[in-house]
Amino acid sequence: MTSQPSAGRVRKKAKVKTAVTAKAKATATTTRATTTPTSKSKSKSNSKSKSKSKTRLEAPKLLSGGNPQISKADGHAPVKAYIDALPGWKRDLGRRLDAFITRHVPHVQKAVKWNSPLYGIEGQGWFLGLHTFTHYLKLAFFCGTSLRPMPPGASKGKDTRYLDLREADPLDEAQLAQWLKQAAALPGWVPNKP
After folding, report:
1. How far apart are CA 104 and CA 101, in angstroms?
2. Hey, what's the torsion of the CAs at 159, 160, 161, 166, to 10 degrees?
């Protein structure tokens, strides 16, 4: 004769099994609770640093006068990053000037050095710089004293002349195109290499 477990024994085994299962679940939950925040905090801190990096790339620090702080680099991309970071009306004017310069000097070389876009001709040096101030953008013609007529702004440098462009100033495109073509044909400024 086989003995069948009594109803009491079945209930007791079920209670023990339920208690063991509940304890295992509690342990698993506790383990998850202690490990998950660490994982989340790591991923949160990683995503925070990634977003900070993206923010730095998307919005460079503005120095005095709204001048964007861009690392030195050659090519169109850093010049574009500089111009895109300009505040307000200066950004629109910067884009317009960059396109104008490229159109009138198609073989122009570009770079950002000393927080200023520079424009030059390969093998000849830089003929033009752009810098941002609080109330205007300044074009620096590095061989400006050789241009006819000379750009209006005097400089401490013996060869450099400036053109300051304010928000409400009309842009004399014909004169600017002449200066660009003249400047690009002359030997440009070559900075001393450290």
Report:
1. 5
2. 180
Report pLDDT digits (tens) over 133-155: 999 999 999 999 999 999 999 99
138 bridge partner residues: 131, 164
Distance (Å, whole) CA 33 – CA 29: 6
Helix (H, G, I), strand (E, B) or coil at 55: helix
CB atoms within 10 A of CB 171: 13
How many residues does the structure list for the chain? 194
pLDDT digits (tens, 9 = 90+) for 179-192: 999 999 999 999 87
One-letter amino acid of 120:
G
* Assessment of whether the complete model's pTM goes beyond 0.70: no
Tokens representing 188?
A: 């440009």
Written as one letter, the residue type at 127 is F
The SS3 of residue 53 is helix
Looking up tokens 């509690």, which residue turns up?
Answer: 26
